[in-house]
Amino acid sequence: MVKVKYEVVEHDGGWAYKVGDVVSETFPSHEAAHKAASDAAARQTVAGQTGGIVYEDRDGRWHEEVADGRDRPSTEVVDKD
C-alpha cells in the first residue's frame, strides 16, 4: 500500500506542508499548517469513483488505465525536525 507523508515545514516567513517536492500555500502559524495538512491527508483517504484515466509519462508516451476509486493510500502528518 502506498503511504503519503504530509510534512509541516517553515516556508516563506510562515508555515506550510509539503508532499514530496510540492509545497502548499503559506499559513501564518504552525498550528494552521498542521490542521490544513491533517485535513488534506484525511481527504486523500476517502474513496472515490472508479474510472478511466489518461496520462503522459516522462518519455512522452500516453497511457490509459482504470483507477480503482477504492484503492486509497494511507497518510501521515509529521513535523519536520
Oligomer: single chain
Number of helices: 1
pLDDT < 50 runs, ≥5 residues:
none
Q: Can you give the helix content as a percent range?
A: 10-25%
- Largest sheet strand order: 3-2-1-6
Major sheet, described briefly? 4 strands, mixed
How many β-strands, per DSSP? 6
Report the order of strands and helices. Answer: EEEHEEE
Mean pLDDT value: 93
The CA-CA distance between the termini, in Å, is 26 Å
Principal-axes shape call: globular
Structural class: alpha+beta
Strand content: 35-45%
Using only C-alpha atoms, the radius of gyration works out to 15 Å
Secondary-structure blueprint:
Elements: E1 3-11, E2 14-19, E3 22-23, H1 30-44, E4 51-56, E5 62-67, E6 74-79
Parallel strand pairs: 1-6
Antiparallel strand pairs: 1-2, 2-3, 4-5
Describe the structure.
The chain has 81 residues and is an alpha+beta fold. Helices cover 19% and strands 43% of the residues. The protein contains one helix and six strands; from the N terminus they run E-E-E-H-E-E-E. Strand 1 and strand 2 (14-19) form a beta hairpin. The protein is globular, with a radius of gyration of 15 Å.
